[in-house]
Amino acid sequence: MELPEEVVKDARRRLHRAQGQLEAVDRMLSEGQECKAVMMQLSAATKALEQVGFKILAAGLTYCVEHPAEAAEEGYPLEEIQRMFMRLA
Q1: pTM score of the predicted model
Q2: 3 state DSSP class of 49
Q3: Which portions of the chain are predicted below pLDDT 50?
């Protein structure tokens, strides 16, 4: 299943943001910064990654609902999307 271009663009933007946040966590740890500040940054990175997953999953779910036969043929029956959602949740 191919993802829409706008979903890919948004996912990549969010991934770059998360990457920057993870780099900040690494830098903060090496600088010995306070645990509270590190955890806030780590939480932001985790949230950004979750949002990427949900954005991609929403696009997949939309495709599966709009094109159930094609999605199933491509290996993405609705049940598989539901399992993917539960792994992400």
Answers
A1: 0.79
A2: helix
A3: none
Exposure class string for 4-27: b at 16+ Cβ within 10 A, else e: eeebeebbeebeebbeebbebbee
Q: Report CA-CA distances (Å) from 55 to 20, 34, 39, 68, 69.
A: 19, 32, 24, 19, 22
Ramachandran sector of residue 75 (left: φ over 0; alpha: ψ -120 to 50; beta: rest): left
List of domains in the chain: 5-88 (1.20.58.1000)
Q: Residue 81 has what pLDDT? A: 86
Please report the pLDDT score of residue 45 as a whole number.
94
